[in-house]
Amino acid sequence: MSVTLESQVGTPWKKPPFITNPALRWGILLFAVVYFFAALLSMEVNWHRVYEGLERGRKFIVAFAHPDFGSRASDIKEGMIESVIMTVTSTIVGIAISIPIALGAARNIAPLPVYLVCRFIVSISRALNEIIVAILFVAIFGFGPLAGFLTLSFATIGFLAKLLAEEIEDMNKVQAEAVKATGASWLQWVNFGVQPQIMPRLIGLSIYRLDINFRESAVLGLVGAGGIGATLNTAFDRYEFDTVAAILLIIIVVVMLLEYLSGIIRARVQ
Amino acid sequence: MPINDKNGVKVWQVRDRNSQLLRWAMWMAAGIIFYLSWMKISDQTTWFFVYDAPRIAADIGGRALPPRWGYITQLGKPIWDTLNIATLGTFFALCMAVPVAFLAARNTTPSKLFVRPIALLIIVSTRSINSLIWALLLVSIIGPGVFAGMVAISIRSIGFCAKLLYEAIEEIDETQVEAITATGATRWQVMVYGIVPQILPAFAGVAVFRWDINIRESTVLGLVGAGGIGLQLQSSLDILAWPQVSLILAVILVAVVIGEWVSAKVRGAII
Predict the structure, then answer these.
(1) What is the ipTM of this complex?
(2) Chain B residues with CB inside 8 Å of A127's CB?
(3) What is this structure's pTM?
(4) Rg for chain B, CA atoms, rounded
(5) DSSP per residue over B203-253, as a string?
(6) If we measure between CA atoms, which residue out of B218, B221, B211, B205 comes closest to residue B268?
(7) Which of B44, B147, B237 sits opposite A43 (nearest CB)?
(8) For the segment B217-250, what is each residue's pLDDT rounded down to a tens digit?
């Protein structure tokens, strides 16, 4: 140590690099630069069209100053109610289904075959994008909020069951064993030994998922699965930016309210 | 500990009567809300289609399988576009998210009263609107194509990245910053030597995490005309070419799984 210190005296200090291996560092940088230019060059941008669009972009930003809630009020109201309904029902059903799956996907509770099946369900649900699932459900069940409800419930399972299963795997074994030692049955064991430990996390995640489901329900309408998205799409197609601004403002306000609410509830349960 | 006296025998209960009643009322309210919502959904559903669903699903499944493997030669360019939308989108989003994060963090913002609320507003508004809606908006403003998709992804990612980054900035160790300040460093030198090294791992983690999410999101942007493999999906759906749809879905699934694998590897190497 002292030898290296001696040799370094007098030379100015340099920041240690983030990636220590120089070959890897320069390799990644070179690759990134080459890729960056290859990607940019392969992108065909019609600058003339973009330039023309700037005027519409300005109109859109101006529209936020005077959003038009009035002229499509009934459509907006109906779409929002449908979105909220889809959000609430799908979150409730999603939670109800994901609790047993979470129990099955926790390695310290479930036997191996059950564990594998539940993990498979979780990864399928996580890998498929909501919109793609919605397209399939619309094709199978027809247009309307039922397809959206099913999509969101399905997506909730992957999210909630995975995070809840991780929480169960991290739980304190001592408490669960104490309950088991009293001679409790399996159900009693889960109810009094496991459930109280994961309850705060379950409530926090459920509220968070409610928030996500609302945001997602706003786009499902684009593929015909009900909600405010259909109204939004129509407004875009007609270049009615005032109405678009109104809908987007409502979505932002609702999401902010939900986030504020979830902050309060999570602070209380934890 | 609520204990009920039953004929002289003390029986332990989990809750006392009032909290039990309150809980019951809450469950009841939730049940009623769920029932009313479900009725509303049920009213707007053509139940005939739902009863018919198993047959339709089997029919679609029968048409979709086996996938049309020959079509894969036409998917190379769309997948490359999708990758570019996600990667460049993440890159530009990070370029914009970093200043916003520094303006939003309580310990680095120049003004808590004016600048911080504006930065928080940018974060909230970009975060609460889905990238598909941003894509819809940009397609109608600057026209369809990969460029619109990339801009949509980057706008959507600003809020997400900036939020996680500013939380990381607020959690830094102040003593290191003080030590740098004590050497007489300027504001920018404090930033570079005191703050940035502390948040660099969080930054790399956020970047890779968001890239993974963006790969998923960019696969569907084509549905509204914003480029990538979603365009092929939309056109195959429009002509009911189910064997092509199933192949595209398989390709998307593979892309998503590879994206998740790469991001898990990189995050494992950083943390």
Answers:
(1) 0.79
(2) 253, 256-257
(3) 0.81
(4) 26
(5) HHHHHHHHHHHHHHHHTTGGGGT-SSHHHHHHHHHHTT-HHHHHHHHHHHH
(6) B205
(7) B147
(8) 888 888 888 888 888 888 888 888 888 888 888 8
